[in-house]
Write a structure and sequence with these properties.
The complex is a heterodimer. Chain A is an all-beta fold. Chain A is built from no helices and 11 strands. In chain A, a hairpin with a 7-residue loop joins strand 9 and strand 10. Chain B contains no helices and 12 strands. Chain B is globular. The termini of chain B are far apart. Classes of the chains: A mainly beta, B mainly beta. The interface between A and B is medium-sized, with 28 and 24 residues.
Chain lengths: 112, 115
């Protein structure tokens, strides 16, 4: 069982919809990440939160809006997405020092 | 900047064969090195890690040794099983006090093990 929980597992939405992806971890990690992964490719970093503050935004379009309401939760708000945004969205968390990032199982997003 | 070069796939083996997936890296400072595995329809799972030179990470019969002199972290397993079929990613990170705690991935290697 993964220690990072993502919901929903699957999401289908139209280009005019607004939806949110959720991520939760209870390992006390203070860094949390959003990645986008296309088939047969490595994950691409989108956002990094460090101590609930946005520390990295990899020039992601504004139709993706991250939010970190507390140290355990991370959201990704979606609005007016495009078909090319269809992908697996992965959340990860990491403790300090040289530890690994721990990934959730992802949300598979399809844009109609 | 940091980079990871991973053996191109796909790799197809018969059950009980020996597996090597090559991984070399370029990094500033002293990175930590990881192998992640992704089974179909799932997220990434940490397979093993090494945080300093000459460390050997091991898990589920897989091993990799952090070789600073050759900047390599090759993944090996002595006898693969059908259940090992997955995509394997080599990755590195630098301590999160620098570089914004990024994880740099290789391109991934698809492994298929046939009975």
């Amino acid at each position: 069982d993964t220690e990072v929980t993502q919901t929903p597992k699957h999401l289908v939405m139209g280009m005019t919809n607004k939806k949110s992806l959720k991520c939760e971890q209870h390992m006390g990690h203070r860094a949390m990440y959003w990645y986008k992964q296309k088939a047969k490719k490595p994950p691409e970093l989108m956002f990094v939160y460090s101590y609930e503050k946005l520390s990295i935004n990899e020039s992601v379009p504004s139709r993706f809006s991250p939010e970190c309401p507390n140290s355990s939760l991370l959201n990704l708000h979606l609005h007016a997405l495009q078909p090319e945004d269809s992908a697996l969205y992965l959340c990860a968390s990491r403790g300090q020092g040289k530890g690994p990032q721990h990934f959730g199982d992802g949300t598979r997003l399809s844009i109609l | 900047g940091n980079s990871v070069t991973q053996m191109e796939g796909p790799v197809t083996l018969s059950e009980e064969a020996f597996l090597t997936i090559n991984c070399t890296y370029t990094a500033t400072g002293y990175p930590s090195l990881f192998w992640y595995v992704q089974y179909p329809g799932e997220g990434l799972q940490l397979l093993l890690k090494a945080t300093k030179a000459d460390d050997k990470g091991s898990n589920k019969g897989f091993e990799a040794t952090y070789r600073k002199e050759t900047t390599s972290f090759h993944l090996e397993k002595g006898s693969v099983q059908v259940s090992d079929s997955a995509v394997y990613f080599c990755a590195l990170s630098t301590p999160w006090e620098t570089s914004g705690s990024r994880l740099t991935f290789g391109e991934g290697t698809q492994l298929t093990v046939n009975p």
